[in-house]
Amino acid sequence: MDNDRFLRALRRQPVDRTPLWMMRQAGRYLPEYKATRARAGDFMSLCRSPELCCEVTLQPLDRFGLDAAILFSDILTVPDAMGLGLRFVEGEGPVFDRPVRDAHAIEALGVPDPETELRYVMDAVRTIRGALGSRLPLIGFAGSPWTLATYMIEGAGGSDFHTIKRMAYDAPEALDSLLAKLAASVSLYLEAQQRAGADALMIFDTWGGVLSPADYVQFSLEPMARIVEHLKRVAPETPVILFTKNGGQHLEAMAETGCDALGLDWTTDLGSARSRVGTRVALQGNLDPTWLLAQPARIEAAVARVLDSYGKGPGHVFNLGHGILQQTPPEHAAAMIEAVRNLSPAFHA
Ligand code: CP3
């Protein structure tokens, strides 16, 4: 790999400067993304075209100097392949035509075969891998079973999660069986992405932080731990990153799964996270994405605080604490990237 800073940092090996990528680095804040998306029609048609996925994956790499590419796709491809009928409604986000509401519906769900039912994603990985050559590592990803289940049971995003929580309390065995099917599906899906050319794998647990601590362990962490165990058996050299948004209180338990790195949102202090788990895992994060709405001249100081908070030495991947906002002016992202390039070598001297 010509640029292996990202993979080295995930393995906590020395680097010349802190590697950097941005969650949702390909997306609507970029005019070139909007142009490709308009050509594709809707978002899922874009996801189903390996050539267009490759084009948008490369767009932020061509514009900025980033240290990793991330597959352009979505976490909801897996429940879509399970037959739920995914649609993205303009201004509303993802919606399933056939949400899962009871044990009967869960019983009927299958575990998708990645090379047939999710072939378009594997073709996108192969196409992007070919286009990148040895230039940069490629991150493959999936949603955590809990996060996928929230969309599958609620039928749409952004609620108080009362439907899935009621199932957790009234029918925990039904929810456990759904989470077990999802853990099996995501394990095979990530394994297939690795075989198709992904160099690191990330699990997005966007909604694990809405659970009580005990429920987090049962419904979010346990299924993720099964996936990590599978990946470490089939692809032990491939780094795995776990990201639970608002999961700062669970870092020790997350590190225990055997993953290589933890993604942090901005509500957790990087320095204290490092003293808690930094000898076991690398850390990725954690600038509040809202900072990129501030004046570029102010962004450098915010970057400096993130770098200072982690401190000197290996094991840090700079990132935002969540996806880049679509209102972000691309020049502001460029100012952050410039600041990481200029300031971070001093932390690796
Ligand atoms: O990081 C990257 O550049 C890779 C692409 C990526 C997308 N979605 C593309 C996308 C990744 C890693 C995801 C993950 C994802 N998808 C998550 C977990 C990460 C997180 O942000 O918490 C979640 C919860 C989803 C589900 C999802 N997909 C939502 C809630 C939305 C937004 C709906 C909206 O209209 O705001 C999507 C759509 C989506 N996924 C877009 C992109 C670029 C926007 C679609 C568009 O072009 O209209």
UniProtKB/TrEMBL annotation:
UniProt GO MF annotations: uroporphyrinogen decarboxylase activity
Gene3D superfamilies assigned to the protein according to its UniProt record, in alphabetical order: 3.20.20.210
Pathway annotation: Porphyrin-containing compound metabolism; protoporphyrin-IX biosynthesis; coproporphyrinogen-III from 5-aminolevulinate: step 4/4
Keywords of the record: Cytoplasm, Decarboxylase, Lyase, Porphyrin biosynthesis
Chemical reaction(s) catalysed: uroporphyrinogen III + 4 H(+) = coproporphyrinogen III + 4 CO2
GO biological process, one term: protoporphyrinogen IX biosynthetic process from glutamate
Location, primary (coarse class): cytoplasm
Site label Transition state stabilizer, positions: D74
Subunit structure, as described in the record: Homodimer.
Record-linked PANTHER family: METHYLTETRAHYDROFOLATE:HOMOCYSTEINE METHYLTRANSFERASE RELATED (PTHR21091), UROPORPHYRINOGEN DECARBOXYLASE (PTHR21091:SF169)
UniProt record similarity statement: Belongs to the uroporphyrinogen decarboxylase family.
Protein name: Uroporphyrinogen decarboxylase
UniProt organism field: Sinimarinibacterium flocculans
